[in-house]
Amino acid sequence: MARTRFRSDPGLTWRMGGVGLGLVLLYVAFGAVLMSLVDIGPALVITLGMAWGQWYFSDSLALKSMGARIVEPEQAPELHAMIDRLVALADMPKPKVAVAVTDVPNAFATGRSPSHAAVCVTTGIMQRLDADELEGVLAHELAHVAHRDVSVMTVASSMGLLAGFLTRWGFWLGGSRRDGRSGAAMIVVVLVSVVVAFLSHLLTRALSRYRELSADRSGAYLTGRPTKLASALTKISGEMAAIPTEDLREVQQMNAFFFSPAVNGTTVRELMSTHPSLERRLEQLARISADLADRG
Questions:
Q1: Is residue 270 annotated as a catalytic residue, yes or no?
Q2: The domain containing residue 225 runs over which residues?
Q3: Would you put residue 169 in left (φ > 0), alpha (ψ -120 to 50) or beta?
């Protein structure tokens, strides 16, 4: 992670490395199978270009997908003041600050590095949380930036989409090998791509759940007010159930990056969820509160 005053998390570092290695091995195997069946030269070049572009422009792409806009200090003085205080406390570069006009109460961080990052909040979350609760959420998002897990999640989340592109267009841009087995090759490639997509989905979700707990922990220790973060979590989870389903669907593509999952009345299985359960997050914050009280 970047050198900041956020608490380091060796567990997160090991998990990011393990998931990254697992995804690399998974997609190398997938590429080997695909290359043995399909001439994918042009498709591979296009895919690598897409992967680089998605990583390099990850902050602007994420903000655009939410319809968010960068705001200057004179446009959102209170929001900037909170982030200024937190980055000074954490001793880290200040990210760009953005606001998305939507009633969905949430926040997220994005970017390829701490010096090329953005933190975005929705108008919905600013209307529902008080200043201390919002500061706790912002500390959580800045922890993602400091830990660099935002960049890892961006790459991990995009690999499945890029593999799908390679599978679909490899045959068109390169063509199957001229051995009379194009039909069988297509079946094999589709089956392998389904397995690869499922395994990468599991790896990404496992990392996503842990990184949320890590950001909760780091943000709570930085501000010294875990109860405010717990209060924000409880409020947002309760408010999410009242948001119309069509509004939630519009922001589903950012679910893995959100402070709180954008689900409405749906029970998400632990194995496939992007976030740990609310109960688990609140239990961790309660332990941190007790720890801080003992120290105090």
A1: no
A2: 10-295
A3: alpha
Take residue 229 and report the two structure tokens written for it. 């973060």
**Does residue 3 fall inside a structural domain?**
no
Domain count for the chain: 1
Would you say 204 and 157 are in contact if contact means Cβ atoms under 8 Å apart? yes
188-231 tens-digit pLDDT: 767 777 777 777 778 888 888 999 999 999 999 999 999 999 99
Q: Is residue 110 part of a domain?
A: yes
CA dihedral 169, 173, 174, 176 (to 10 degrees): 50
Check pLDDT > 80 for residue 256.
Answer: no
Q: State the Cα–Cα distance between residues 41 and 95, nearest whole angstrom.
A: 38
Tell me whether residue 5 is in a domain. Answer: no
pLDDT tens, residue by residue, 10-43: 889 898 888 888 877 877 777 777 677 666 666 6
Catalytic residue among 72, 133, 135, 141: 141
In degrees and rounded to multiples of 5, residue 121 shows phi and psi of -120, 155
Higher pLDDT, 51 or 90: 90
Tell how strand 107-113 and strand 116-122 pair up.
antiparallel
Q: Can you tell me the distance from the alpha carbon of 132 to that of 138, in angstroms, rounded to the nearest whole number?
A: 10
